[in-house]
Amino acid sequence: MDRELRRAKLSKLIESEGFENLEQMLQANMFDSVSPGICVNPECNYTVEVEPDQNRGWCEACGTQTVHSALILAGLI
Q1: Which structural domain range is residue 61 located in?
Q2: Structural domain tally of the chain?
Q3: Is 23 within 8 Å of 34 (Cβ atoms)?
């Protein structure tokens, strides 16, 4: 996944989760058993809570295994 798409998906997650920035979202979710996740298909913005290390979660909107956790997208895992 290219850097631009990764940033766009993280921005969508930050907005949908109600945080002001990436650092706030990561601090709130870093030690939880679930993390916000988003489909990484360019045309889909389906969000769902997933395991923190998820990088092939099921997207119910587009029917693919393309949901990544915020921690994966941010490069922390």
Answers
A1: 3-73
A2: 1
A3: no
